[in-house]
Automatic annotation (TrEMBL):
SUPFAM superfamilies: Phosphoenolpyruvate/pyruvate domain. InterPro entries: ICL/PEPM, Pyrv/PenolPyrv_kinase-like_dom, Pyrv_kinase-like_dom_sf. The keyword Calcium does not apply. This is Phosphoenolpyruvate phosphomutase. Transmembrane segments: none annotated. It comes from the Bacteria. Belongs to the isocitrate lyase/PEP mutase superfamily. PEP mutase family. PANTHER family: PHOSPHOENOLPYRUVATE CARBOXYLASE, PHOSPHOENOLPYRUVATE PHOSPHOMUTASE. Keywords: Pyruvate. The keyword Chaperone does not apply. One of its GO terms (molecular function) is catalytic activity.
Amino acid sequence: MTTASYGTRGAFALREALSARRLVRVAGAHDGLSARLAEEAGFDAVWASGLEISAAHGLPDVSLLGLAEYLAAGTSMRRAVTVPVVADCDTGFGGNLNAAHTMMRYEEAGISGICIEDKLFPKRNSFVNSGQKLLETAEFCQKLEAAKGVQMNPDTVLIARTEAFICGMSLQEALDRCHRYVDAGADAVLVHSKQSHSGEILSFMEKWDDRAPVVVVPTTYSDFSEQEARQAGVAMMIYANQGMRAQITAVRQTWATVIAEGSAASLEMRIASVKDVFAISGMDEWLERAGG
Ligand code: SPV
Ligand code: MG
């Protein structure tokens, strides 16, 4: 499948799933392998997570990497899966022109959903307790318009993410911002919260008039179930970083075992086989291409 045909099909599938308001379940990833594991598990789409991509480079999620590096990671994920890829594009990597450039390059790469947040560039991950600053609503609307203005595929989903709750703003401010973002052309809104419970999200859902699908990221309020999300009218739930956190724990335990035991013998029953690595990376398909 070509990048163009994948992009057209993936964006269409994503848009349809969102408008059906069945809960779209999305898993965070940072490379081809982690994306493939998400698809294999049954997720509807992959989230090219800024936090995960940064951490995979050994860097914190504070706008150190640029568009080219995030896009390269997003492209590896898109190549590895058949489900749509939704890319976390932070602030659009700068100003309005950067946001337009982001839309162009990500669409060209076959990415189906592009998420841009209303923080000031350079941004910090939402769970950093200092330095969280938002753009004025009107300025962020211009950024969304700049991205929308260069969109080629009508099905590409532009998600406008508000960090109003992250910055301690009121429910009314979060609602006002999201309405303005939809007026500016956003196809969906992502409302982020760092509370340890789903209170802010549920209060937002109660007042939101469903004029655009709502995306949530239950990292800190992880007891928010899919059933509750459906009942509240949430359209997409992103498990943004649990995969990478599981990986960190598993690798730490594995290497600690080798250091403690002076051998890898006891690991064999607990870790994926080399055969499994071949299978998930498509060894047989590639060898067939070479005639076996
Ligand atoms: C990411 O995965 O990079 C996100 C989600 O933006 S969070 O880290 O929860 O802010
Ligand atoms: Mg992010």
